[in-house]
Structure formats: structure tokens, C-alpha cells
Amino acid sequence: MLEIHEISVTPFEQNCTILVCGETGKAAVCDCGDAAPVLARIAELGVDVELILATHGHLDHIGGTHALQAACKVPFYFPEPDDFLREGLSEQASLYGWGPLTPPVVDFHLKDADVVTFGRVRLDVLHCPGHTPGHVVFYEAKSAKLVAGDVIFQGSVGRTDLPGGSWEELQNSIRTKVYTLPEETIIHCGHGPTTSVGREARTNPFVRK
User: Spelled out in words, what is the top-level CATH class assigned to the domain 2-203?
Assistant: First the structure.
């Protein structure tokens, strides 16, 4: 069974997630914006991290990934169309008044329909562009859970006014990739509380099913 632990990190209150296989204690970390609190939670949980994931390349989602890589020495999975954001991490940091950040090194590039595994957990990768060109989400069918990054939030959706964003693509991603999942699917959002596919499909004021 997949367990998901959320940690709010960075001044943007981004939800980093630690995904844990309840049967084996193996884990994956997704969207590490700041390594220190994530490493503290990993130690608290007593899990064995096997890999690092990112939904997209904004600094609040990958700013701490290089440090996490150094600490855990595990591979990093990232969507290739967002490499321009990853490579420009220092420029992003400067723009928002952050200190210098080192871009993480990618071991595997993610694309639509890929499958990522750790422990006995299988994550389906769905390409959901719009917030960024390469944005992906991670779906675990057995427990009906979705790590959605900044595609959709409770009662809201991701911004499309940043470099590479597209309102048309975001709407299409939500309708064809998110809203086609089972209604009971729990959505773990990049910011804010969890929600469900059914709730957002019926009530989201920006994109309805």
C-alpha cells in the first residue's frame, strides 16, 4: 500500500511528498524544494529512499534536489522539456531573491506513459503540460492516489503566465488526463490541501469536466 507524507517547504509553501511502500519501507521523494526538512522527515520515518522525482522545473519544486541527491545518492527522474527551467535554476533563484542554487543532475528523463517503481509501488507517469511544457504527474492505481504538482489544486489550477505556460494545454491536460481518472482518486497538490478527482471535476471554477 502506498503511503504519502506531505511536507510544506520554501516560502511558497510547496508540498514536497515522500511516497512510501508500506510493505517494504522503500520510498521516493517528489518535488524537493528544500532538502533539510525533507531529510529530517526521512530520518523520522525510517524509510529507505530509492529515487527522487520532480513534476516540473520550478525552483520551489527542485531547489533542494541537488542537496538531496548528495545526501541520498539515488537517481533523479525529471521531464526533459523542462530542462530549460532546471538549467536556469540560478536565474530563477536570483529573480525571487533566493540564494544560489545548484541544478540537480538528471539520471532519467520522464515522458508520458512511463512507469516508475520503488518497493512494490508502481507509478504511472502522465504528461500534463500547461503550467510548464514538461509537467508530469504520478498516478498510483492500486490506492487511487495522484501526485499532481501544480496542474490542479483544491478549487484552483496552476498558473500559465510563466515561461512555457499555456492555458489551452493546461485545460486539455486536466480534462483528458486528470478528470479521466476514477472519481475517488485523491489528488496530492503542489500547494494547499488534498482534494479528489470527483470534487474538482464537479466544482472547480476554472476547469470543469
Answer: alpha beta
CA distance 57 to 63: 9
pLDDT, tens only, 52-93: 999 999 999 999 999 999 999 999 999 999 999 999 999 999
Say what the pLDDT of residue 22 is: 96
Separation between Cα atoms, residue 78 and residue 99, nearest integer Å? 23
Q: What is the mean pLDDT of the chain?
A: 98
Say which residue the cell 483528458 belongs to: 176
State residue 130's pLDDT score. Answer: 98
| Residue 137 grid coordinates | 504527474
Helix 35-45 vs helix 65-72: crossing angle, to nearest 10: 40
Instruction: Give the residue extent of every domain in the chain.
Output: 2-203
Interatomic CA distance for residues 114 and 46, integer angstroms:
28
pTM: 0.98
Report CA-CA distances (Å) from 85 to 61, 111, 134, 139: 11, 16, 10, 24
Backbone φ and ψ for 194, nearest 5 degrees, come out as -70, 160
CA distances from 86 to 16, 60, 71, 80, 197 (A): 17, 11, 19, 9, 29
| Helix, strand, or coil (residue 94) | helix
| The three three-digit cell numbers of residue 32, written as one number | 524537493
